[in-house]
Design goal:
Blueprint: H1 22-34, H2 41-54, E1 58-62, H3 65-77, E2 89-93, H4 98-106, E3 110-114, H5 125-131, E4 136-142, H6 151-160, E5 164-168, E6 176-177, E7 180-181, E8 188-192, E9 205-209, H7 212-222, H8 242-245, H9 260-291, E10 297-298, E11 310-315, H10 323-332, E12 356-358, H11 363-371, E13 372-376, H12 383-410
Parallel strand pairs: 2-3, 2-4, 3-12, 4-5, 5-8
Antiparallel strand pairs: 1-9, 6-7, 8-9, 10-11, 11-13
């Protein structure tokens, strides 16, 4: 029931939907039949298959994309070569989800917020130079809503300034520029397999890297900081018999291991990912066809080959300041929508607890915070739904402009 005990309108365009079928149910039963529920051979197989899919040497599965981000920052903090020293500053976009930022704070680094580009919604690459300081040690780039950051410009900037590049690809599995996947350009990349993401293990995440020492470090950090899963070639391997080494702790680790069930489901989902991406990209064509060229509505501009996590709208000009009215109209039409991720993250009260500074002005992030929203994208054919969304947007734009004109005449 809605406010005032009124019935909810029928939901014509949900934010997300399940990607599971018989294969995922069979995977769950396979795990049940094995009697092994904790992380085991299914997780190991998924890691191998995911790394091969991305073109990475190594993949480490964890219990969430949030934990993948945590291990990325911790792994670089405790890497034997210390590519990221305690107290360093990390450049981050002002628009992203909370779990991009919290690990930076928790592990003793300082956040430096940079504005985003009005068209791509990704890091404003021109703003990175101004944000640099002697304390800067890394860039944590977020490929927002499935859209890749410009790989070449980003990598060139990090190389020029000797910075570590970390990629938060939690919303962009399958996104590419040329023949490179997001998550494989920097020192490491992270992905999420949450319910609403490109593949779903319900809860889950993955870190990929080509850095052997980082891989071994992350393996230890994933499970208590012990050496139990370390290969013989690991820099963390210690002397002693198997009995003693099984309970030796070498790093201040966590327990963010996935369930064996997550690995089995992930293997089934990974086989379907190419068809999921094909459908999402086909839906993006409908999105541009039905929702583009509306005065006052800016769509996200694709960079490279987006994975199209969702479809965003930034209200401008005559529609600026009208987001609440559009959200209300969408709700009445059964169209689910959300803010663009977390808007300008500096406007969240939690910022008072974080070690940070910003590179002003954050004009685009503020515009997104005030006038941005997005709807979902799925692995299903959304032509009819997006045609309906486009019709609602066009009608909304006409009505709001007419209302503004009447108000102006009356004054």
């Amino acid at each position: 029931m809605t406010e005032g005990n009124q019935p909810r309108p029928p939901l014509h365009y949900p934010l997300s939907c399940s990607t599971w079928g018989e294969e995922e149910i069979a995977a769950i039963h396979r795990v049940i039949a094995s009697g092994r529920y904790t992380m085991g051979s299914e997780v190991a197989a998924f890691e191998e298959e995911f790394a091969a899919h991305c073109g990475s040497r190594h993949a480490v599965m964890v219990n969430s994309g949030s934990s993948a981000n945590l291990l990325a920052i911790a792994g670089l903090r405790y890497h034997p070569d210390q590519p990221l020293r305690p107290g360093s500053e990390i450049l981050v976009p002002a628009v992203s989800w909370s779990t991009t930022f919290f690990p930076v704070h928790h592990l003793g680094f300082r956040l430096r917020f940079v504005d985003v580009d009005r068209d791509t919604l990704n890091l404003d690459l021109d703003g990175l130079e101004a944000a640099m300081s002697p304390e800067t040690g890394a860039v944590l780039a977020v490929h927002l809503l499935g859209n890749p950051v410009d790989f070449e410009r980003l990598r060139a900037f990090c190389t020029r300034h000797d910075l570590v590049l970390i990629e938060d690809s939690c919303e962009s599995m399958g996104a590419m520029q040329g023949d490179r996947h997001t998550g494989t350009v920097g020192r490491c990349g992270t992905f999420s397999t949450f319910y609403s993401h490109h593949i779903s293990t319900m809860e889950g995440g993955v870190l990929v890297t080509d850095d052997e020492a980082l891989f071994h470090t992350v393996l230890a950090l994933r499970a208590h900081g012990w050496v139990r899963e370390q290969p013989a070639s690991s820099h963390l391997q210690i002397a002693g018999g198997e009995f003693e080494r099984a309970f030796r702790f070498v790093l201040p680790g966590f327990n963010v291991r996935p369930l064996e069930m997550s690995g089995a489901i992930g293997r089934a989902q990974l086989k379907k990912l190419p068809s999921f991406l094909q459908a999402r990209r086909r839906n993006a064509e409908f999105y541009r066809r039905f929702c583009g060229d509306i005065d006052g509505i800016r769509l996200q501009r694709e960079t490279g080959n987006s994975a199209w996590f969702g479809f965003s709208f930034l209200l401008e000009g005559p529609l600026s300041g009208k987001r609440a009215s559009l959200v209300k109209r969408f709700a009445a039409e059964g169209i689910e929508c959300r803010p663009i991720v977390a808007g300008n993250f500096l406007n969240n009260p939690v910022i008072a607890h974080l070690n940070h500074r910003a590179e002003p002005p954050l004009e685009v992030a503020d515009a997104i915070d005030r006038d941005g929203l997005f709807i979902g994208n799925h692995h299903l054919d959304l032509e009819a739904g997006l045609r309906r969304v486009g019709s609602v947007l066009k009608d909304f734009a006409v009505r709001e402009k007419h209302s503004a004109a009447v108000t102006f005449d009356a004054s």
